[in-house]
Amino acid sequence: MGISVDPDISLEGTGLIRAGFIGPAMPLEAAKQLLVANAYDQFFSVVRADTDDLLDAAYRLRYQVYCVENPFENPREHREEREIDGEDDRSDHCVLIYRRTGLIAGTVRLILPAPNPQDRPLPVDRILSADSRSLFRRLLPVSTAEISRFAVSKQFRRRIGEHRYADVGFTGTQPNEVEQRLMPWITFGLLRGILAMSLEHGITHLCAVMEPALLRLIGRLGLSFQPLGPLVEYHGLRQPCFMALAEVLPRVHDLQPDLWAYAAADQVGSFPPAATRLSLVKG
Question: Which has the closest alpha carbon to 3: 35, 25, 27?
Answer without folding.
Answer: 35
